[in-house]
Design goal:
By secondary structure, the protein is α/β, with parallel strands linked by helices. Helix content is 45%, strand content 24%. The strands form three sheets. Strands 3, 4, 5, 6, 7, 10, 11 and 12 form an eight-stranded mixed β-sheet that branches. A two-stranded antiparallel sheet has the order 1-2. A two-stranded parallel sheet has the order 8-9. Helix 1 (7-19) packs across helix 2 (22-29). The longest helix has 28 residues, at 63-90. The two termini are 56 Å apart.
């Protein structure tokens, strides 16, 4: 027996079997009756099996035809599913989107966009990978992510396009009952306070030190060095230290009155830039494009 390569013939046979008529099958398929007859005969030759017998003005299935009709029905169902999925994929309602992001956008900006995307498109397969800026860029460049979202104004590698999605203000934060809580001071005054800073190499640590140097001051005194944001904030809540952070990271704590801001004129307008990056020469999938537009 030859290999069955005539999948269209199986589809035509399905409609003939279902309608028990070559004429009515032709009407459904928008082809001529002779074309229907030719496809069924070609299929019978490939299978070396008689599928239909004439009965009056119509046809009936042979024993083999009944079994093959069941298979053909599943094939038509699969084709229908493929077309439905393709339609959803092309409209961005289905498919996989991988986003590589640094800590700030991954925790404070993207969750809302991810939730909204899933509510709009339940079939969408979304994956968020949290990494440092260097790793997030690598994932994008190596085709392991579709989009990279980076906080901190990192310098992007060549071959990437950039869209700024948020400029988040930078705040100085102290304990809620600190003498400088909600006060306006100068950097010179603030320098007298002990600071809690991130590890060496941290972009926020470098920006803090650069801020003081750019105004002619030595870097502030380091009271503690901590690598995690949550423990840093909780240390301030317990009564020790000053931190320099992105507003998104502490806004809820400030609004609940658990910590307080110190206002410094020299940092008015200073912001943490959050940007989305794409590979310049590659087109996004429809699903990735929908998500990119959403953020």
């Amino acid at each position: 027996m030859k290999n069955v390569s005539n999948l269209y013939g199986l589809k035509v046979f399905h409609y003939v079997a279902y309608m028990e008529s070559f004429t009515r099958a032709a009407e459904i398929l928008y082809i001529s009756q002779p074309a229907v007859t030719m496809q069924v005969r070609k299929l019978e030759e490939e299978l070396n099996v008689k599928l239909l017998e004439p009965k009056g003005r119509g046809v009936v299935l042979t024993t083999a035809g009944k079994e093959i009709a069941k298979i053909a029905r599943r094939l038509v169902g699969i084709e229908r599913d493929v077309r439905r999925y393709s339609s959803k994929y092309n409209s961005g309602q289905a498919g996989k989107v991988t986003i590589a992001a640094t800590y700030l956008p991954a925790n404070y900006l993207l969750p809302e966009a991810l939730a909204e995307s899933k509510l709009l498109y339940p079939l969408l397969d979304l994956e968020l990978i949290t990494a440092n800026a260097e790793k997030a860029f690598q994932l994008l460049q190596h085709y392991e992510s579709d989009i990279a979202v980076i906080g901190g104004g990192a310098a992007e590698p060549k071959g990437l396009s950039k869209k700024i999605i948020k400029r988040d203000p930078l705040w100085f934060i102290v304990h809620k009952e600190h003498p400088l809580a909600d006060k306006s001071v100068t950097l010179r005054e603030l320098r007298k306070l002990p600071f809690i800073v991130r590890e060496e190499g941290s972009s926020m640590r470098e920006r803090l030190f650069a801020l003081f140097r750019s105004h002619g001051h030595q870097p502030p005194h380091i009271g503690l060095q901590m690598s995690g944001l949550n423990e840093t904030i909780r240390t301030v809540m317990s009564g020790y230290g000053t931190i320099f952070v992105s507003a998104l990271e502490v806004k809820d704590y400030v609004e609940r009155g658990e910590v307080a801001r110190v206002h410094v004129d020299e940092v008015v307008g200073m912001a943490n830039e959050i940007a989305a990056y794409l590979r310049e020469e590659d087109d996004l999938s429809p699903a990735a494009d929908n998500f990119y537009r959403l953020i």
